[in-house]
Structure formats: structure tokens, C-alpha cells
Design a protein that fits this description.
88 residues; two-stranded antiparallel sheet; mainly beta
């Protein structure tokens, strides 16, 4: 089965579920820019190519919600931000 959808505006974390298999689900983020990341198996992520500026970075987890941090990028340096999600 295939379904094609077009989003006219940015959407954050749309819940997708299979109508046939209840265990099949995913979350979809639609962005108007290329600055996003999906975390790796160890939880790390990297967003490359940000122009200089101050940004709000949001980490989102399907069960534990969202957390934000402010990061200022002044050039080509790397910045580190840590997020910790505690089980409820």
C-alpha cells in the first residue's frame, strides 16, 4: 500500500499509523529549511551548515516530550548541547 501526501506548510511531528498493522507507526517532521537532525543509536546528532546566529534547538521524544536549548553560532566552530530525558 502506498499513500502520497503533500504538505503546504511546516508541520512538526505528525503521527503516522498503518491502517492494517497496528504496530507500524512513525513520526514525520516537515521543515521549510534544511536544518534538522535525527539522532543516532547513541543519541548524538549534528546539524551542519548553520549560518552565524542564535538558534533555539529542540530535542523531541515521542514519549518524553520536548526540550529546548539556545545556541549561538559565530562562525564555523562546533557547539555542544546536551539533552537528558528522564523516564516518567
Amino acid at each position: 500500500m502506498k499513500t502520497t501526501r503533500t504538505f503546504s506548510t511546516a508541520e512538526v511531528m505528525v503521527n503516522l499509523e498503518c491502517n492494517v498493522h497496528g504496530w507500524m507507526k512513525a513520526f514525520l517532521g516537515v521543515r521549510s529549511d534544511p536544518f534538522y537532525a535525527v539522532s543516532g543509536p547513541d543519541g548524538s546528532f549534528s546539524i551542519k551548515g548553520l549560518p552565524p546566529g542564535t538558534y533555539t534547538v529542540e530535542a523531541w521524544h515521542e514519549k518524553f516530550g520536548a526540550q529546548t536549548a539556545t545556541v549561538t553560532v559565530t562562525g564555523t566552530e562546533s557547539k555542544t548541547t546536551n539533552f537528558t530525558f528522564a523516564a516518567h
